[in-house]
Design brief:
It contains seven helices and no strands.
Amino acid sequence: MSKDITVIRDVLCGHAQGLSLKKIQEVTGVPKTSVKRIIDQAHATELSIEALLHQPDEAIIELMMPSRRACMNYIEPDWERVFLNYERPRNPPGLQVC
């Protein structure tokens, strides 16, 4: 994860200095599409690039890399209902008269 934050910081620093996407790619070694994605995500936040660079690492990670569950509006299933519907035997064993 520390590699991700250093890459994000390097790309944002290059963008703040006015470098082109191609130049940022050459300097950081990050693919051009990833550079564009990072810059677009930074612009989607309410903070400026300079304000993002002054944020702590945890705040940048939260702003730039939200969890998949947050992005997908994930709702946790009702595991008790799943268990009761699918895990218990459907036909209980019958009684045998001897």
